[in-house]
Amino acid sequence: SGIGSQKDRVVTEEEWLQKWEMGNTGFHKEQGHPLLQKYLNVLLNGRSGLRIFFPLCGKAVEMKWLVDMGHSVVGVEVSEQALKEFFAEHNLPYHEEPVPEISGAKKLQSTSGNISLYCCSIYDLSSSIVGKFDGVWDRGALVAVNPCDRERYVSLMITLMEKNSSYLLVTVSYDPNKHKGPPFYVPESEIKSLFG
Ligand code: SAH
C-alpha cells in the first residue's frame, strides 16, 4: 500500500525503447514546460553561457530554448530515436561519434557544438566524461528512474554539479495506489533525504 506499491516496480531500457518505437510518448511536451519558463531565473540566476544538464532528456524542446539563449546543453538518453527526432524536428545538423570511455555509447553533437546528447544509460556517465554543470533541468527524470535506483541516480547527479549550480526538479503529486507509474510518485520527504 501507499508508496510501497511502486517501490519494486522496474521499467527496463527495452521498455523505454519500445515506448519510443510505438510513439507511446505522452510525456513529451511539444510546447515545452511552463515551469521552466516560470523558474528560468532561478536556474540561470543572472548568469550567462552556462552548461546545463538534461538527464533522461528524451527530445525535450527546452534544450533548444536554452541553446538559443546562449547556453550549452548536455543530455543523456537511452533512445537514439528520441535524440535523432530532436535534431530533425529543430532542423539542427549534427554528427555522431563514439564515446571512448563507454562501450556501445554514441555522442550526437550539433554542428554548432553547443548541444551534446549522449546515447547511453545515465549510469554510464561520470564527471570525467561529461564534466560538471552549472544547472540541471530534471523533468521526467528523477520521476522516471526506477524507485530502486533513486539513490544511485541522485548520488551521480550530485557529482555532476558545480559548486554554485542550480537544480530545477519537477515532480508529480498523485495517489500511488491509483497509478503504477512512471512517472513515479516521489514524496517531498524522500526528495529531502535523497538530496540532503
Ligand atoms: N525528460 C524528458 C523525457 C522524460 S521520459 C522530457 O521531459 O520530455 C524519460 C526518458 O528517459 C525516456 O525518454 C527514456 O527513454 C529515458 N530513459 C529511461 N531510463 C534511462 C536511463 N537509465 N538512462 C538514460 N535515459 C533513460
UniProtKB/TrEMBL annotation:
One term under GO cellular component: cytoplasm
Protein name: thiopurine S-methyltransferase
Transmembrane segments: none
Similarity-based family: Belongs to the class I-like SAM-binding methyltransferase superfamily. TPMT family.
Catalytic reaction(s) noted: S-adenosyl-L-methionine + a thiopurine = S-adenosyl-L-homocysteine + a thiopurine S-methylether
Main localization of the protein described in the UniProt heading: cytoplasm
InterPro entries attached to this UniProt entry: SAM-dependent_MTases_sf (IPR029063), Thiopurine_S-MeTrfase (IPR025835), TPMT (IPR008854)
Lineage: superkingdom: Eukaryota
One GO BP annotation of this record: methylation
Keyword terms, alphabetized: Cytoplasm, Methyltransferase, S-adenosyl-L-methionine, Transferase
Alphabetical list of Pfam families matching this protein: TPMT (PF05724)
GO molecular function: thiopurine S-methyltransferase activity
Enzyme class (EC, first level): transferase
EC assignment: 2.1.1.67
Chain residues that bind S-adenosyl-L-methionine: 16-27, 56, 77, 121-122, 139
Gene3D superfamilies noted in UniProt: Vaccinia Virus protein VP39
Protein's cellular compartments: Cytoplasm
Methyltransferase in keyword set: yes
